[in-house]
UniProtKB/TrEMBL annotation:
Stated family: Belongs to the sigma-70 factor family. ECF subfamily.
All residue ranges annotated as the RNA polymerase sigma-70 region domain in the record: 38-90
Domain of life: Bacteria
Listed name of the protein: Sigma-70 family RNA polymerase sigma factor
Transmembrane segments: none
Keyword Transcription regulation included in the entry's annotation: yes
UniProt KW keywords: DNA-binding, Sigma factor, Transcription, Transcription regulation
Length: 171
């Protein structure tokens, strides 16, 4: 590593230890932990897994002092890591020959149908639906969270609505 690069890296580490930055991080953590866990839980279907993913993302953010919009960065990172988590679990279950797990909370027939429809969506579609209707984000904010264009968000939401409508019409 070049000496100049080492000096820049040392400055970044020094910046992280400053009280103002640490206070900003603590405030961000307090404000965003619960919403990010809800986002992760919708995608993963597991509260413990969601908490683990969000903790990992916050830890990664702590080592990224160059992030200018931390809330948007958190959303994008949580969605990305949750998508990877879901893919890994499906692959593990497929190789082990295990069926998809059932929800633990008894639900009414409408809630069961909606939850089943959401479970059939791809993780990216499910995340788009959650960001739009639960967090009430604009298409531009969803595009930022999913790291895509606003036109792609419209397409994701349209396809998710179509899949949900089709599933609910069958039930």
């Amino acid at each position: 590593m070049e000496p100049i690069a080492a000096a820049v890296r040392l400055q970044e580490v020094t910046v992280l230890s400053e009280p103002a930055v640490r206070g900003d991080f603590d405030a961000l953590y307090a404000a965003q932990f619960a919403p990010m866990v809800r986002l992760a839980c919708v995608t993963t279907g597991s509260v413990p897994a969601a908490e683990d993913v969000v903790q990992e993302v916050f830890l990664a953010l702590l080592h990224r002092p160059d992030v200018r919009e931390p809330t948007a960065w958190l959303r994008r990172a949580v969605v990305s890591r949750c998508t990877s988590w879901v893919r890994r679990r499906r692959l593990e279950r497929r190789h082990a020959g295990q069926p998809e797990p059932e929800p633990l909370v008894p639900l009414g027939p409408d809630a069961i149908a909606v939850r089943a429809g959401l479970a059939r969506l791809r993780p990216r579609h499910r995340a788009a639906i959650f960001l739009r209707y639960y967090l009430d984000l604009s298409e531009a904010d969803i595009a930022d969270a999913l790291n895509c264009r606003p036109g792609t968000v419209k397409s994701l939401l349209h396809r998710a609505h179509s899949a949900l409508r089709e599933h609910l019409d069958d039930h």
